[in-house]
Amino acid sequence: MRLWKSWIVTAKDLAVFKKNRYVLYSLIALPVIMGVVLPVIFVFALQSEAAQATHAQLLAGAGQLGDMISTYMILIPAVLPSIIASYSFVGEKIERSLEPLLATPTTDGELLLGKSLAAIIPCMGVTYLAAAISLTIFDVWSFSALGLFLLPNVYWILAMGVISPLACIMSVEANVIVSSRMSDIRAAQQVGSLIVLPLIILVISTATGAAGSNVLLALGVSAALAIADVALFYLAKATFQREEILTKWK
Amino acid sequence: MIDTENLSRKFGNLTAVDNVTLHVDEGEVFGFLGPNGAGKTTTVRMLCCLISKTSGKAQIGDFTVDTEADCLKIRKLIGILPENVGLYDSLSAYRNLDFYGKLYEVPDDRRKENIERLLKLLGIWERREDLVGTFSKGTKQKIAIARALIHDPQVLFLDEPTANLDPEAAKTVRDFVLELKKEKRTIFLNTHNLDEAERLCDRIGILKTRLIAVDSPKNLERSLYSRKTILHLETVTEAVSTVVKNLGFVKSMRVSENKLILDMDNPERDNPELVRLVVSAGGNIQYVTELKSTLEDVYLKLIREAAPK
Ligand SMILES: Nc1ncnc2c1ncn2[C@@H]1O[C@H](COP(=O)(O)OP(=O)(O)OP(=O)(O)O)[C@@H](O)[C@H]1O
Ligand SMILES: [Mg+2]
After folding, report:
1. CATH for B2-221, among 3.40.980.10, 3.30.465.10, 3.40.50.300, 3.40.605.10?
2. For the purposes of burial, counting CB atoms within 10 Å of the CB of B265, is it exposed (0-12), middle (13-18) or buried (19 or more)?
3. Of B68, B89, B103, which is closest to A104 when you measure between CB atoms?
């Protein structure tokens, strides 16, 4: 595996994305909603109840909100790759540019890694950007209301450091597999985005506020994602082979 | 340079390529002719290590298409123009070629030189920064050919390089292939275009799942039908036709209006004698011409005769 070869493919894909308005909009829209709009709304909602609440109640509410905001950050890398990767895989299939690409002295693994990185890098990039912004919004409020910086906490660190990258990788891998069977970008995006469903469990848990259990749950989800990533990696690798692509991809 | 032995490929129950054995010399332009679905593209894909073979052997230069290690070397050695150009529409012509140059591991300065040389040669250097999506089909085809040549490959596979091009663009592409031929590159050319095959290729293979015939265009034209001489006379008189009919070297004679159509083995040797005798028998000769069977006649005959599987 020669990483520099993969990087050539990544750089090309990133250049193609830059020209694609739809990819750019998605890269901006989702993080803005999750990282700015939602946190601001939630913080205002909590603040409006602050006058009637005791300090203990406010602290509990803030703790729960912190976890909720962290969870929404995970949804960004889970959803975005299904949009971006579908352009990179189904897109190449539609442009029929895979055959000349496969004819170059590059291994299947190098190509797959290069294309995957092209989806992972911008998605994780905007995720961390959104995470930094939402964390700032939340902490500014929590410091002014409670005199404390509540984030980052253990759950946030797990969410950003472990679950997000694992979810991003899973989403990309799922998209490689989906793309091999689909020749319509929208359809691939819709099927690919089903991958967020398992993460809904975190959304429900953090929203219903069994606060202390979130870290344990996050550890469980991390383990499940890790296993799913490994399994999907082998499936994606088996799907992304010259022979398969040229003879079976429809 | 290219060698195959009983090369075969099946897709499920369908045999796409059946026991093809052929040899292409270094520096040769080899034309691969055959109807739709004959297995031309499948053969090229096997030779380029893009898909696996079901059985048989194939070799490019010193490398066999069996192992991944050899395949990487083969891919460096060859350039391919696939059936579909597959360029990136949202990138410029230059960026498309640069990307492939990098993947083919061409060093920076040589990559720049090659792109400039190829784009100038094909007359698109001025438009190098334009997005490929804005180009016509013919121009895209030229860029795809430049892409196939970006790493100076010794062997070039062209899968129907002039399909869907207007006559002028097709001619530019053909002239370019002739240039490449002068550079002594080995070229494997898939085509439906008989005229193109005849003009460009040193030898032609006719494929219909199996390889039906391989030879130079000239030999193919000669092989199937014996050669005929046509004698246009003012009038065909009894005296003339009797003389001609009884000549030893005339295998058969047919009269059609004022023409004599003669079947003979060696017209170059015997025609002077024929003309002398016809003149002395009082014949007034207007023209002496050769009736050639064209590559098209030969192709159609071979394809029709090839037993359906
Ligand atoms: N991936 C595939 N799966 C099943 N059958 C295939 C596949 N690829 C090719 N074939 C079949 O193999 C045969 C040979 O196809 P191939 O594309 O090699 O023909 P060709 O000579 O290139 O034809 P054309 O002139 O139309 O390009 C055809 O019958 C085709 O349907
Ligand atoms: Mg073909």
Report:
1. 3.40.50.300
2. exposed
3. B103
